[in-house]
């Protein structure tokens, strides 16, 4: 299943947030959306998943999601959004409980995703007992449990320290190598974008418009930390963003 | 490995410590000691005539009055009458409060319609309404239970919808993004999220319930701790009065303990 964003514009009262965004998210591709803070990239992601309605334009699903898919558009949030009163297992179970399946089938899915995210030993733990990286792994397991057609990731690594971020980034790459998931990945971190993105969309400051779209053909597994080609791309992205970021930083927030 | 330049310099004074403090910790032994010392002082004062028996009876006299109450079997009659009113009133007030609070927390119509009403009625001391309740529900159990119900209803409503308002919107959005049904979101995300606030509301409403219980029983009741205290007061039987007050304190402590246990059980995830 592909996604197609057509002429998306959005405004909150009299503040224009997004202006005429056109974008394709193709199957098996990770599309990174970067931009200065407040450029509306998280708002855009909420629109892609149907959590918010754009003032103008539309998000189209092209083709049908696979038959076994329980929740085609599935989010991974920056703040993990785990229920603190449920265990790791319970948090995964939560998103399956509204789907018709017997308890055994549900247990099987839970076991499977916890094994894939290396969380099997922590099934009975509560979120408060887990580190930030672990919590995000639980959120990833929960997302995998509904077999999404497209993963929508809203700065999934931004709440983590840099070492954990590195580890989790490797996990995301490994996972993509195995399952070729489709994803829209919002971040303000350029290193994450060049490590993970097949396509990098650069948004301008508010009102967010597409400044540039950079495609990287290098396979994810070949993208090591010291890679001149990637560094050059990252530098180029930074040049695109620098003035925008500076101008965005100087803006007064009126709300 | 240590810093060599640091090791060479032995002169200089240590940095003065300025942290610490501001962390009161409960010390188990202190409370009983204070309690026993106070009772002993009181007993001693009464026996030596330093505290006039007219003003305050000795603790031993109050204890005798208590034993008397037990022996005549009146204690159970008073307690049963009071507990019945308290439990029925508090339980139904809390239940209705949670239901209405949830409605206000979830629906715009209920919020706009009911929340100003709640704000207007909440500050009225419910004792002032007791005469009205007697006219409406009769002089018997009805008016007493209604007073307690009414008094516990409003704080519970406010605690419940306050708790619902404070549930992390991110969690609700998560529920929506995974396509959970509305009922699932309410049952599995909103209500558990509001539970801490509801339980602390229950703590407050339990205290209010005891106040209203005594007030209602003082107006018209044959049995009940409030009636017992009123009777003791009009007979100047201060020893019985102290016994009644001590019973109320114990009742309050038991309630608080039960709610504390409930918090431990339901909020063990915190």
UniProtKB/TrEMBL annotation, chain A:
Select a single GO molecular function from the record's annotations and give it.
ATP binding
Q: Which UniProt keywords apply?
A: ATP-binding, Nucleotide-binding, Transport
Domain ABC transporter, which positions? 3-230
Q: Which domain of life is it from?
A: Bacteria
Q: Which InterPro entries match?
A: AAA+_ATPase, ABC_transporter-like_ATP-bd, ABC_transporter-like_CS, ABC_transporter_ATP-bind, P-loop_NTPase
Q: State the coiled-coil residue ranges.
A: none
In the record, the note on similarity to other proteins reads: Belongs to the ABC transporter superfamily.
Name of the molecule in the record: ATP-binding cassette domain-containing protein
Give the species: Sneathiella chungangensis
TrEMBL record, chain B:
> Does the record carry Membrane as a key word?
yes
Q: Which Pfam families match?
A: BPD_transp_1
The processes (GO biological process) annotated in the record are: alkanesulfonate transmembrane transport
**Does Ubl conjugation show up as a keyword for this record?**
no
Task: State which residue ranges cross the membrane.
Answer: 29-45, 87-110, 117-139, 145-164, 208-229, 241-260
Membrane topology of this protein: Multi-pass membrane protein
- List the record's Gene Ontology CC terms alphabetically: plasma membrane
Which InterPro entries does the protein's record reference?
MetI-like, MetI-like_sf
Q: Which domain of life is it from?
A: Bacteria
Q: Where, per UniProt, does this protein localize?
A: Cell membrane
Signal peptide span:
none
Question: Per its UniProt record, what PROSITE patterns does this chain match?
Answer: ABC_TM1
- First-listed, main subcellular location of the protein, grouped into a coarse class: membrane
Which keywords does the record carry? Cell membrane, Membrane, Transmembrane, Transmembrane helix, Transport
In this protein, which residues make up the domain named ABC transmembrane type-1? 83-259
What this protein is reported to do is described as: Probably part of an ABC transporter complex. Probably responsible for the translocation of the substrate across the membrane.
Q: Into which family does the record put it?
A: Belongs to the binding-protein-dependent transport system permease family.
Question: What is the protein name stated in its UniProt record?
Answer: ABC transporter permease subunit
């Amino acid at each position: 299943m592909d996604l197609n964003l057509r002429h998306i514009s959005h405004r909150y009262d009299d503040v224009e947030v997004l202006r005429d965004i056109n974008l394709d998210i193709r199957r098996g591709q990770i599309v990174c959306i970067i931009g200065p803070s407040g450029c509306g990239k998280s708002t855009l992601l909420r629109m892609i998943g149907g959590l918010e309605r754009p003032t103008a334009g539309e998000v189209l699903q092209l083709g049908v999601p696979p038959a076994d898919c329980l929740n085609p558009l599935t989010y991974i949030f920056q703040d993990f959004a785990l229920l603190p009163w449920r265990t790791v297992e319970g948090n995964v179970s939560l998103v399956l409980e509204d789907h018709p399946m017997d308890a055994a089938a549900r247990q099987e899915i839970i076991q499977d995703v916890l094994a894939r995210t290396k969380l099997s030993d922590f099934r009975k733990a509560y979120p408060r007992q887990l580190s930030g990286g672990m919590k995000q792994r639980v959120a990833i397991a929960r997302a995998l449990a509904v077999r999404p057609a497209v993963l929508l990731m809203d700065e999934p690594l931004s709440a983590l320290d840099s070492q954990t971020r590195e580890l989790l980034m490797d996990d995301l790459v490994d996972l993509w190598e195995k399952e070729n998931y489709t994803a829209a990945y919002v971040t303000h971190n350029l290193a994450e974008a060049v490590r993970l993105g097949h396509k990098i969309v650069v948004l301008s400051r508010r009102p967010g418009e597409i400044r540039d779209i950079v495609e990287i053909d290098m396979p994810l597994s070949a993208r090591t930390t010291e890679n001149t080609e990637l560094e050059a791309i990252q530098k180029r992205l930074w040049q695109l963003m620098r003035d925008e970021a500076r101008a965005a930083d100087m803006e007064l927030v009126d709300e | 490995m240590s810093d060599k330049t640091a090791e060479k310099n032995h002169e200089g004074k240590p940095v003065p410590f300025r942290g610490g403090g501001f962390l009161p910790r409960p010390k188990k032994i202190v409370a009983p000691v204070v309690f026993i010392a106070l009772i002993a002082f009181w007993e001693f004062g009464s026996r030596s005539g330093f505290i006039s028996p007219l003003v305050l009876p000795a603790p031993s006299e109050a204890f005798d009055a208590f034993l008397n109450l037990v022996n005549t079997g009146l204690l159970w009659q008073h307690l049963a009458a009071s507990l019945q009113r308290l439990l029925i009133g508090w339980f139904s007030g809390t239940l209705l409060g949670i239901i209405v609070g949830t409605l206000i927390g979830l629906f715009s119509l209920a919020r706009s319609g009911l929340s100003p009403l709640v704000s207007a009625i909440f500050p009225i001391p419910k004792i002032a309404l007791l005469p009205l309740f007697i006219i409406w529900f009769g002089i018997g159990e009805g008016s007493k239970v209604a007073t307690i119900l009414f008094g516990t209803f409003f704080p519970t409503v406010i605690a419940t919808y306050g708790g619902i308002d404070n549930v992390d919107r991110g969690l609700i959005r998560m529920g929506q993004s995974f396509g959970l049904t509305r009922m699932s979101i309410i049952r599995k995300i909103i209500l558990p999220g509001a539970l801490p606030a509801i339980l602390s509301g229950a703590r407050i409403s339990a205290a209010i319930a005891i106040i209203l219980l005594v007030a209602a029983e003082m107006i018209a009741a044959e049995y009940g701790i409030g009636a017992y205290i009123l009777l003791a007061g009009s007979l100047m039987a201060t020893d019985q009065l102290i016994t009644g007050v001590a019973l109320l304190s114990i009742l309050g402590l038991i309630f608080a303990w039960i709610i504390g246990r409930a918090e431990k059980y339901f909020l063990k995830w915190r």
